[in-house]
């Protein structure tokens, strides 16, 4: 990856992380851990990969993105705002009464949100429907969806994987945010979903793996996925839950807890330090 | 065009008929032969999407296709459409108000021999609670066809309820159906029988039985359970001062409940619900089961007389 692009992406991802902390702190609720773990992937999607137009969010031929792990929408809300879909000033209204920024993505009111999601396991099916619609219409857009490694415990995910492979949806790219933690503890202890890549391959998908915090690795995986013909792709993104905020990293307790004022200040100072170095 | 056929057959034929004019897609979960979407599949294989035995995923895929601008009918038995996939329908279709039409067949006791696990008497209740969901339950083949057309032309989610058992035509080619409107099939002044689905024909028979006892019953057909024709319901509640509802569905949450809600809030008159009591179905021939569960003219007439006894 060109160094300038990489540097810009690092800045974008850091801004997304600050916006995530800002949103959940303002809301006094929300899900920082899994939002932070996808910040780099979401930055890459919205600033490099997705063919979207902030001026025309409903453009029929745009690439689609479905956040199947909808609770981590602060990352996507930030990316949409920073990409120009709406004013970043409204980010702190997240989860407040009267805000368009609902606790989980709402396609009816948020510019750039392609599917309402949040009930785990459902977004991937909608992504399959969009990919199939593109095939039926002869449209060339691609569909991307991010799932959690806990989310894939839902049976519907495996129904959708069967469907995607059966209909050879090579315009569909599924990313699993493999951060290893879910509400009740480590995924390996709650309900092991490993080996995710091998299972996807057994279901007939092209399986890839990437370091979800390394833009060279992210770029390589997305580019490889785009070359696949006749199969959907699934990328296992190895990530750290809470990435970028020291005290949240790999801590299950920060799945669905908002930082108080002191923790907020600590987090923002850390992220501001990172920003200075970029 | 008086035909006797199951409304599921009318559904499959109507999809095929209207596919010429409208850009429809039809999905099924390995039941195309039973839901009769197989008729559509044969005529329009490129617009038919087999989803396999995975109803939750089918509803989600339908939502995604609708989000991408397609009009989609997702079909399976009522038990799996409203029951198993309830939450997918609620969150992936209802909440974003997507243009998905749920074609649910094999509703109610008249499924017959398959028995309780496949006899869904709760689907109207479940679907009615979803904000923005239109719930249609046609009485005969003519109305079933018109409901399909109305669903296509309606912008938003619609739940359509069809039966497995062949039923006689009640309506002729001049019959008009509109979402949110009921129809007076027989006027009357003593008691209003408000009926839906295959109970409409039985309500007309019940009115004849009541007539022999000197009771003048009105019969109202409600295919559009949601939105309900409140105006018509209130008009006949005020006129007859006694209402009996009848449906091939649980007396909890269906048409009976919908009518009670409207009439009680205006404090007009007693409403007596006739339908499947708070119980499961059984195996047996459909017509025998309908009699066993008193889902017949005599059952309605008995409840109508009870409603009359409550009249002030």
Task: Describe the 3D structure.
- The complex is a heterodimer of chains A (278) and B (312).
- Chain A has ten helices and seven strands.
- Chain A is of the alpha/beta class.
- Chain A has a single domain, classed as Thiamin diphosphate (ThDP)-binding fold, Pyr/PP domains (Rossmann fold).
- Chain A has a five-stranded parallel beta sheet with strand order 1-2-3-7-6, with helices on both faces. Chain A has a two-stranded antiparallel ribbon with strand order 4-5.
- In chain A, strand 2, helix 6 and strand 3 form a beta-alpha-beta unit.
- In chain A, helix 1 crosses helix 3, helix 1 crosses helix 4 and helix 3 packs parallel to helix 4.
- The longest helix of chain A has 25 residues.
- Chain B is α/β, with parallel strands linked by helices.
- Chain B has two domains: 165 residues, 3-Layer(aba) Sandwich (Rossmann fold); 128 residues, Rossmann fold, CATH 3.40.50.
- Chain B is 41% helix and 20% strand.
- Chain B is built from 13 helices and 14 strands.
- A seven-stranded mixed beta sheet of chain B has the order 3-2-4-5-7-6-12, sandwiched between helices. In chain B, strands 9-11-10-13-14 form a five-stranded mixed beta sheet, sandwiched between helices.
- The chains are: A alpha/beta (278), B alpha/beta (312).
- Chains A and B meet through helix 5 and helix 6 of A and helix 4 and helix 6 of B.
């Amino acid at each position: 990856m060109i160094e300038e692009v990489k540097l810009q992406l690092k800045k974008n991802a850091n801004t997304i992380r600050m916006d995530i902390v800002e949103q959940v702190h303002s809301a006094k609720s929300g899900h920082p851990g899994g939002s932070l773990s996808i910040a780099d992937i979401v930055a890459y999607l919205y600033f490099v990969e997705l063919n979207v137009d902030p001026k025309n969010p409903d453009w029929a031929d745009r690439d689609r993105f479905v956040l199947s792990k909808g609770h981590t929408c602060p990352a996507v809300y930030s990316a949409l705002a920073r990409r120009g879909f709406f004013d970043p000033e409204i980010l702190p209204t997240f989860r407040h009464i009267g805000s368009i920024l609902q606790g989980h993505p709402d396609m009816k009111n948020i510019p750039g949100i392609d599917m309402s999601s949040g009930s785990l396991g459902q977004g991937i099916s909608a992504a399959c429907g969009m990919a199939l619609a593109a095939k039926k219409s002869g449209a060339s857009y691609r569909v991307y969806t991010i799932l959690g490694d806990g989310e894939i415990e839902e049976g519907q995910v495996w129904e959708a994987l069967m469907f995607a492979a059966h209909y050879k949806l090579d315009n569909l790219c599924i990313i699993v945010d493999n951060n290893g933690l879910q509400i009740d503890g480590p995924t390996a202890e709650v309900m092991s979903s490993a080996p995710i890549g091998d299972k996807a391959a057994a279901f007939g998908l092209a399986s890839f793996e990437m370091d979800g915090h390394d833009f060279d690795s992210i770029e390589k995986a997305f580019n490889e996925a785009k070359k696949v013909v006749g199969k959907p792709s699934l990328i296992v993104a190895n990530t750290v839950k809470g990435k970028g905020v020291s005290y949240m990293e790999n801590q299950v307790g920060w799945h669905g807890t908002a930082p108080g004022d002191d923790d907020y200040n600590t987090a923002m100072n850390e992220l501001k330090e990172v920003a200075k170095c970029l | 065009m008086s035909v006797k056929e199951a409304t599921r057959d009318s559904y499959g034929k109507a999809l095929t008929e209207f596919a010429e004019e409208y850009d429809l897609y039809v999905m099924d979960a390995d039941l195309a032969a039973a839901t009769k979407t197989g008729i559509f599949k044969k005529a329009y294989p490129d617009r038919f999407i087999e989803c396999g035995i995975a109803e939750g995923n089918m509803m989600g895929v339908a939502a995604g296709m609708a989000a991408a601008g397609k009009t989609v009918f997702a079909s399976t038995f009522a038990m799996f459409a409203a029951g198993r996939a309830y939450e997918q329908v609620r969150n992936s279709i209802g909440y974003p108000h997507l243009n998905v039409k749920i074609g649910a067949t094999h509703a109610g006791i008249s499924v017959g021999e398959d028995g309780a696990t496949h006899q869904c008497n709760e689907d109207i209740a479940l679907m009615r609670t979803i904000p923005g969901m239109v719930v249609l339950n046609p009485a005969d083949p003519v109305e079933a066809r018109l409901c399909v057309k109305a669903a296509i032309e309606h912008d938003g989610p619609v739940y359509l309820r069809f039966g497995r058992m062949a039923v006689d035509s009640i309506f002729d080619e001049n019959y008009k159906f509109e979402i949110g409107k009921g129809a007076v099939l027989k006027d009357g002044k003593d008691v209003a029988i408000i009926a839906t689905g295959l109970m409409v024909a039985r309500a007309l028979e019940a009115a004849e039985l009541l007539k022999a006892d000197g009771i003048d019953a009105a019969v109202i057909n409600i295919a559009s359970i949601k939105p309900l024709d409140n105006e018509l319901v209130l008009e006949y509640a005020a006129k007859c001062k006694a209402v009996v509802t009848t449906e091939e569905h649980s007396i909890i949450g269906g048409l009976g409940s919908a009518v009670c809600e409207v009439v009680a809030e205006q404090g007009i008159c007693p409403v007596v619900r006739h339908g499947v009591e708070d119980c499961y179905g059984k195996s047996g021939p459909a017509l025998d089961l309908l009699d066993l569960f008193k889902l017949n003219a005599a059952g309605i007439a008995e409840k109508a007389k009870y409603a009359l006894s409550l009249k002030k």
